[in-house]
Amino acid sequence: MARFQTLNFLNKSRKWDSLIRSLCLKLKDPEKALLLLRDCLTNLGILPSSFTFHSLIHSFASQGKMDKAIEVLELMIHDKVKYPFGNFVSSSVISGFCKISKPQLALGFFQNAVNSQALRPNIATYTALVGALIQLGRVSEVSDWVSWIENEGLEFDVVFYSSWICGYFREGVFVEALRKHKEMIERGIVPDTVSYTILIDGFSREGYVEKAIGFLERMKKDGLEPNLVTYTAIALGFCKKGKLDEAYALFKMVENLGIEVDEFMYVTLIDGFCSSGDIDCVFGLLEDMEKKRISPSIVTFNSIINGLCKAGRMPEADDLSKGIAGDAVTFSTLLHGYIDEENVIGILETKRRFEEAGVCMDLVMCNTHIKALLMVGALEDAYAFYKGMLAQDLVADSVTYCTLINGYCKAGRIDEALEIFDEFRDTSISSVSCYKCMIYGLCKNSMVDMAIEVFIELSEKGLELVSGLYTSLIKASFKEHGADGVLKFIHRIENLEPEVFDIVSNSAICFLCKRGFPLDACEVFMRMRNKGSVVISRSYYSILKGLISDNQKGLGWPSLNTFVKEYGIDEPWVSKALVSYMCMKDVDKALFFLANTQNASAVAFPVSVLKLLTKKGRILDAYKLVISAEGNLPVMELVDYSIMVHALCKEGYLDKALDLCALAKKKGIALNIYAYNSVIYGLCHQGCLVQAFRLFDSLEKIDLVPSEITYAILIDTLCKEGYLLDAKQLFEKMVTKGFNPNVRVYNSLIDGYCKLGNMEEALNLLIHLKARCINPDEFTVSALINGYCQKGDVEGALGFFFEYKKSDILPDFLGFMYLVRGLCAKGRLEEARGILREMLQTRSVLELINKVNIETETELVESIISLCEQRSIQEAVTVLNKVGSILFPLGRRRRAQSIAEKEEKIHEGEAICAVSSKYSSLNCQTDLDGRMSSVKKVEKVVDDNYNFEKGCRLPDFESYYSLIASLCSRGEVLEANRMTKLMLFDMGTGG
């Protein structure tokens, strides 16, 4: 009978076990199962098996309902039951805590279970522990547990290693992940589909899709078939790299393989197309999902909303969100979008919507909400919300504190930011970002001293030193107190760890040198030397470069000696510093050093040396370096060549400028219009107008559009040479091409017509200038005064002077002199005296006279004023004429050979090489002795541009007609006759 009762009890117990387990495992309803369990224990007197308890704990843990899982665990170990819990329960509980992002509780549970000797972990429990450590960012501690596991005599499996490798990928340590994969294989553990998929996913997420494909091929070679998750990881890699065509092709290949794609693969593609801004394709994929009866979940819609927000299409994102039951991610995404747009109305409307929806906030949404409140200026609301987070069972993290500190600092409420920072310091959170936000905020609010204190605290805590942080402190110290502020900062951190002091000090040296304070950088250098700190080669180089730039070459020599002794001459920075020093001291010695240095091709002087030499007026030394040290040239950009070409042309070294142009072309650098403008200016300056215009005409052949400066140079030169008809034609062409001539172009033409006495044309140009809303300047006024005076119309000159004086436009030095001389010539000395007084009160004139005053060491202004007071006007004019001759020396401009000389050459049988051009009427030939090499080089440049046949071209009738008309307009009949004879001769030759 007793046996029958026992069997009956067991049968009842088994039925209840079966029912409870069925609710857990089949119906996925552990809540009802727990009700039955409680009923069995309290009312029915039935004790279900330990396996039933295990199933219920596992079911709750899988659903993330850890409070219920712990309740079942407590029932299981209660005195009435006293079932032991083993590794299955432990691993389920640990995994459950990780699932709800509470790894700290998982770790605490494990430690308590082991310490109470209730648990002897197996490899499955240790694997769950690895997952908790990874979530805590403590993957490095896994190695310590590995030693413990080995001592326990447990065998590792592929799941343990896969979890470990996944942790390294999460930390971004790819090399270590690969090392563990190799270690796993060496232990004889065979990788499975999951382990390969983890590798593929890890590399794909970081954009190394090629590496991921390599593991995919190895996986297939090992006889493993990739699954949908594997292919989705590859698709993610393609999307990360922006290779959307490849991602879509992979998607189609998966379909062709007969693998049924799921929502997650669609979401991966949708994310990729959203990132590229191709929203049309996104909606196309959404339609495709609906056709395949794949119901888009909130994950898909959130991805699309995120894409629309990033694309700035907030109205569409908002409309889409209103058609779904949004979650915390939905509203967080919308808030981020409106924050980026600084759309206050959108932020407030989204806030209203999620409050009405009663969305359960997670930490990410809380942080976004705080950021949104700060953005709209609701700082008190943001702080109140932060204080209320604990009531929602949410703990502020580093992002929360960073957001609050940054928001209060931006609002200038630095005291409240410091209070929040103090609250952060009272927590166990270790975050460089919070210190960074506080330091940046203090620096922006000119509280550098306190920022330095926060930096010192950060360093003493042993947290990672961020380069931007100490750089900001150096900049803020400099801004507030100059170089002394930087030195004070360095002094205050002298007692920090040597590594920190060295890094900051080296950065300070480079900063001070870059800002032009090499002597203060030397002081930092001396402090470092006294402390035995490591001075990096870049710091040495910066000091030397700074001292050289500051004309302190003598002070640089000791540093250079130390540099060479410490690093050796083979160190690239040492060689660079030596070359820089020698280039500034003696270019020939620098070239000798380069020529005799082993591995000379690895040593190159810096481009800054060329810029410095050019700036100091040593353009020939810069040129010598570039041409002679071609093998040691640094990487020179177009702008570097352009600066040197301009300087050479300006100094009259056209030949060398053209050499440099040829070198640039050899190096594969196409010169721009600015470089060609310099060459054209050089040609014009040397009187080579034909070559200048040939070069100008060739620009279109190399797809270069002449600039306003190009036209201005040529028009100015034509006017100075007296070719007003050609200048006017070029001016009209300039306007036709859509350029707007500036006042300087008008001044060139006005000055040219005034010097020819054609005041009517000059005044017409003045009217044209005003019609274009361009204001005349002092040179315009001076040119017209000169024109009136040359015609003897002093009244006209005076009227013009007083008219523009009302508009505060006075002539320049020469303009005043034209008027004074004109008045003196007419015997109107008293009026000349008045103009002189006006002249000596004009700032621009005084600045010019003072230049001469410095050069001659005489008080010219006072002496001229004295002469005016004594009515010695002629003597005052004589002194000013002398000043003018010093300020504006007449250049010995040699015009082209005369037509008579050309005719003589024709009769002597010499070859003529004239240029067929609209402006070839200028027929300006160069001085054969001084400029022939330059001309040949220009001809080569032009021929390269034109790609014309070699040989001479004769001027046509229109070209001759243009020149003859120009000569006749100036009254040069004799020259016009000679040109007509020359034309007839050329036409005959041509025939």
Written description of the protein model:
The structure is a single chain. It is built from 54 helices and no strands. Mean pLDDT is 79; it is low at 1-10, 553-557, 891-932 and 946-956. Helix 19 runs antiparallel to helix 20 and helix 19 runs parallel beside helix 21. The longest helix has 26 residues, at 467-492. With 991 residues, the protein is an all-alpha fold.
Give the key terms.
single chain; 54 helices; mainly alpha; about 1000 residues; elongated; disordered N terminus
Uncertain runs are: 1-10, 553-557, 891-932, 946-956
Number of helices: 54
Helix-residue proportion:
over 70%
Radius of gyration: 43 Å
Shape: elongated
Biggest β-sheet, characterized? none
Number of strands: 0
Structural class assignment: mainly alpha
Mean pLDDT: 79
Measured by DSSP, the beta-strand proportion falls in under 5%
Topology:
Blueprint: H1 2-25, H2 30-44, H3 50-62, H4 66-76, H5 87-99, H6 103-115, H7 123-135, H8 142-152, H9 158-171, H10 174-186, H11 193-205, H12 209-221, H13 228-240, H14 244-256, H15 263-275, H16 279-291, H17 298-310, H18 314-322, H19 328-341, H20 344-357, H21 363-375, H22 379-387, H23 398-410, H24 414-425, H25 432-444, H26 448-460, H27 467-492, H28 498-514, H29 518-531, H30 537-549, H31 553-567, H32 572-585, H33 587-595, H34 607-615, H35 619-628, H36 638-650, H37 654-666, H38 673-685, H39 689-698, H40 708-721, H41 724-736, H42 743-755, H43 759-771, H44 778-790, H45 794-805, H46 813-825, H47 829-839, H48 843-856, H49 860-869, H50 873-887, H51 899-907, H52 932-946, H53 957-969, H54 973-990
Helix pairs in contact: 1-2, 1-3, 3-4, 3-5, 4-5, 5-6, 5-7, 6-7, 7-9, 9-10, 9-11, 11-12, 11-13, 12-13, 13-14, 13-15, 14-15, 15-16, 15-17, 17-18, 17-19, 18-19, 19-20, 19-21, 21-22, 21-23, 22-23, 23-24, 23-25, 24-25, 25-26, 25-27, 26-27, 27-28, 28-29, 28-30, 29-30, 30-31, 30-32, 31-32, ...
